[in-house]
Amino acid sequence: MTRNRVVVFDEDPGESFRLEFDANAVQRVVGAYLEENPDFDEPLGGSDDPVQSVGDLRGYRKYSPDEDVEALLRVVRTGQLFDDPVLADRPRGHGAARAVVLSLLESRRDDLNNGVERVALPGNAVAAYDDIDGVLYIRRPPNLSAAAGVVGLDGTPIHRIWEGRLGCPPEAELQYERVLCDRCRRQYLMEVLGYRVYNTTPNIKPYSRQRHISKGKDLALIEAVYLETGVEPAVITTKTAERYLGREWTHVQASSHYGAVRGSNAFAGDEIQVGIVLGSQHPGDREILRLAALSGDRLELSERHLNRGPDLSYGVAARPEEPENPYLTYFREHVVVQSVLRFGRSAGATVYVHTGAVPDWILTDGPIGAEKSVIRERCAGEREVISALSDGAELTASEIGTRVTIAERTVYDRLGPLSEWCIIERVTERQPHRWRLLDPDRPGAGYVIDDQWYVRLPGTDGFVD
Fold first, then answer.
1. Which of 36, 112, 170, 227 has the greatest CB tally within 10 Å of its CB?
2. Is 454:421 a contact under the CB 8 Å cutoff?
3. Does residue 248 register a pLDDT over 80?
4. Bigger pLDDT: 257 vs 36
5. Could you tell me the superkingdom of the organism this chain comes from (predicted)?
């Protein structure tokens, strides 16, 4: 089918060539195969019991004489490893049952010292078995040897992941050609595609778990985007955050989660011109270790691996032209980029990215220095100061102190932040300074949400980082 043809992959093929078995599926497939295979009926390796389970199979590989293990391996290898119709039709069976058994029984395996074992299988296939959670991945790359050429198109490529998924031999690397520099990419997004992409926090915001989600801030940000644009935004976030925040958010036109948007055009229509990307995803350490194992890399879990912030690293050196932490970047930063580009694909969009897990090149104004430049919680003292100035009076701190319940020293402390956020302004240069309330409806003034949050969006006249 591919002979003498040029094969083109539009975006990373993802898991198209990978079989996944969780621990229960591995037990089920192996158990069904062993029950039906007479070679495993008799006691093996000096044991009193036949091999009947995953544990038995692994124990047999570890403790039986090498010649006995090799003899049994020859039996498994000679059968059809994949797409066996007989095995597929059996109760609890699977067409790749022999490949699963071989992945557990094969004695020639690489222990990566992080709980994952890598096994080379016949036909350029490779398996990664996770001893920690019992998950097995088997990658079976396509046979492209007869193709006239292979071309991959990807705006956020990780070279080694592409090579692994296409089955490139270790001595061969894909030729990489970058079309646009970072500056040109940003210019193309803005001037040709019509995107405006604004960063609203430098924090990574790993939203895979509910306890990490900043519900109050996120809901206030959504409301402020709606007030600023006059358009109900669409939201892309993690599945956890979509479920958690979706119970309470209003003025959201549509939503989706990271796992559902790659290659999707669901938000491509003209009716969705404003989007928000909330938080970043982290698939879990084990998932990252398994993907790396399939590509032949051993990753390390540092002492800080539970910290999902900017210092998270898995100890693998990046190649030239690759980002630092290539596997983490693949799951995190590149997913954010792909999500940004889901909005307004036909006519561009304005997108607010509420995570620091985003490359600078996609941001219209670059990254911001602090989240408090965009959103912060107002305290009771600030409310009282604003109330004291609400009649249009120009007052000194002492005069404000006579109208509030907070101490005069606290009044001084509140005046600075309120001035920085352009909520009040100083009207005299000589002390004692007088202050007045600015018009909350002026352009670029920002928004007070639920009498609790100040939100001032980047891209507006009043924004100062």
1. 112
2. yes
3. yes
4. 257
5. Archaea
pLDDT digits (tens, 9 = 90+) for 115-159: 999 999 999 999 999 999 999 999 999 998 888 989 999 989 999
User: Among candidates 140, 129, 124, 123, which has minimal Cα distance to 13?
Assistant: 140
Could you give the angle at the alpha carbon of 388 between the alpha carbons of 382 and 390, nearest 5°?
Answer: 100
How far are the Cα atoms of 49, 85, 129 from residue 73, in angstroms, in the given order? 19, 21, 17
CATH 1.10.10.10 domain position(s) in the chain: 378-455
Both structure tokens of 115: 């709980």
What's the pLDDT score for residue 382? 92
CA torsion angle 405 410 415 421 (round to 10): -100
| Angle, CA 167 vertex, CA 166 and CA 168 arms, to 5° | 100
Q: Which two tokens stand for residue 262?
A: 């790659």
End-to-end, the C-alpha distance of the chain in Å comes to 56
pLDDT tens-digit profile of 162-207? 999 999 877 777 888 988 999 999 999 999 999 999 999 999 999 9
- Class of the 182-371 domain? alpha beta
Q: CATH 3.40.50 spans which residues of the chain?
A: 182-371
Instruction: Provide the 3-class DSSP secondary structure of residue 47.
Output: coil
| Alpha-carbon torsion (160, 166, 168, 172), positive or negative | negative
**Hey, what are 26's tokens?**
């591995």
Q: Are 361 and 353 in contact (CB under 8 A)?
A: no
Choosing among 3.40.120.10, 1.10.10.10, 3.40.50.12780, 1.10.569.10, the CATH entry for 378-455 is 1.10.10.10
Map tokens 């095995």 to a residue. 87
